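Form 12-C: Joint structure prediction
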Amino acid sequence: MKNRLILYVLVLVILFSLGFTLPTDMRSLSIDIFIFAIYAMAYDILYGYTGQFSYGQAVFFGVAAYGLLLPVLHTNTNLWVSLTIALVITVVFGIVLGFLAVRLGGAYFVIITIIFNLTFYLIALDWIWLTGGDDGLTFRAPKIEFGVFSLSLYDPVVTYYFMLSFLLASYLILKRLISSPIGKVLIAIRENEERAQLIGYNVFRYKLLAYVVSALFTGLSGALYSLRTRYASADYFNIALSVQPIIWTLVGGAGTLTGPIVGVILINPLIYYIGVWWKHYLSIIGALMIFVVIYSPKGIVGNLINKIEKS
Amino acid sequence: MKDSEKSIIIETHELTKSFGGLVALNNVNLRIPKGELRAIIGPNGAGKSTLLNTITGRLTPTSGEIYFLGEKITGLPPHEIARRGIALSLQIVQVFPNLSVFDNIWLGVKMRFKTRNPFIHWRQLKVIEEKVIEICKKIGLENKIDEIASNLSHGDQRLLDIAIALSTNPKLLLLDEPLAGLSVKERRHVSNLIKELSQEKTIILIEHDIDAVMRLADRITVLDRGRVIAEGTPREISEDRQVQEVYIGSRE
Ligand SMILES: Nc1ncnc2c1ncn2[C@@H]1O[C@H](COP(=O)(O)OP(=O)(O)O)[C@@H](O)[C@H]1O
Ligand SMILES: [Mg+2]
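Section 2 - Result
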């Protein structure tokens, strides 16, 4: 318990001091990692904790990216309002798509999430008047306003702490969720859906809840990403973006919450540094995945927890 | 309402379930009073498991009705039937494999409690923890409370399965072949446990072990090819000609 507290404080101190000491390129990479870590955790709630294997989370990433971009672009709404709009829209989509996907359930769940993803991608490509299609749309990032006080997202140091705070807040909220009775029931559903139902749990409701929570945090990640890049395009719905959280989660450890973050920390630097000069960088990720699946099937953090529990 | 009517806990009325052309349950009428231990016997494929599956809502009957405590429950989803007080331990053991014994039982106990703050840390619900430990002791799993369910022996998994069913504090407990696959020692433990549980709960017990059935049951219903062919006390059943032919005779 005490060790854990020390660990938390240590991590916080490191994260905080890195903000003003890192060189520009690594700071930029860290910002990406913070944003994608939220996406990774969101996926863990859905797959790692509830056992729902989605292959189409990019839908919510893209919806929220545009949910933030469009109000800013067309009506010049401030940051908090546009972020709220983005998240509300994502939740609405989460409820509607979740209702259909969870109802179908089982193997159909995977298939329908792929279909959703392809549909949204094609629509985004096609509705150029709305999305800018393949070329996308750029916008000016609104200021971060707290009353009279305001900060600019054009300052990378500000962006670093801004994104870090969202990551920490998301972690705390999701940690709280999975440590609550609701979290326990989600795990029970992953373990044995029929048994959970037979002792009185409305499995559909809990699965839908996990789906919507996952959509919400995926959306947060997408909205923050568009804010960071001041841009969104149909590519934000690319199915490749739906594969990423699967990789992060499997490599880091499904059902551990921190595992998928570790997955992002391991994989994204590869993409960032190797991807620029070697276009076959994906093969490294593939090799890494095969290695993890063979030598530590519960993922890196999953394996670590196992070892600690056994000792 | 007559006195005898009031004390009926579960009743099926012309319950029929067919799978395509196969009639697994054929106009089954059951009336089980509160507190009884009713055994259901019959050869393999007689429809015994199907009966429990329709009662618990896992299968929807083709026709007929099911009443629990006088209320119609036909067609309700399984979780609602469970919440009304019917628990099932399936023929094939069903536990939460990667969770501890404690967590397995905790989930059942939790179902009964509404928490005001849904985001409370699960470890803060002390009332539930006490109940979990109580059930563990009652079942005889108190020494294995922190073990992971999938590491338990088959016998202990069966005990855990029954414990999960009990943890919801059901009014009616359905047990589908709880002694199957157990060692002699485990059989004795489980059948003693069933005897003990029958003091406080209504139980429907499906079991192939005739000696155990004769010892435990208040009354026995015999199913054959989806039909009830006999019903009575263990003594009446053991003397029934038709039953001997269909069921007991076939053992020899
Ligand atoms: N889900 C199902 N689909 C099709 N047939 C089934 C199903 N469940 C049971 N049956 C059939 O119904 C009959 C009764 O099965 P069951 O209730 O399991 O018998 P018992 O438990 O008495 O051995 C069997 O012939 C079985 O093959
Ligand atoms: Mg059976």
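Section 3 - Comments
The longest strand of chain A covers residues 144-146. The interface with chain B takes residues 176-177, 179-185, 187-188, 191-192, 194-203 of chain A (CB under 8 Å).
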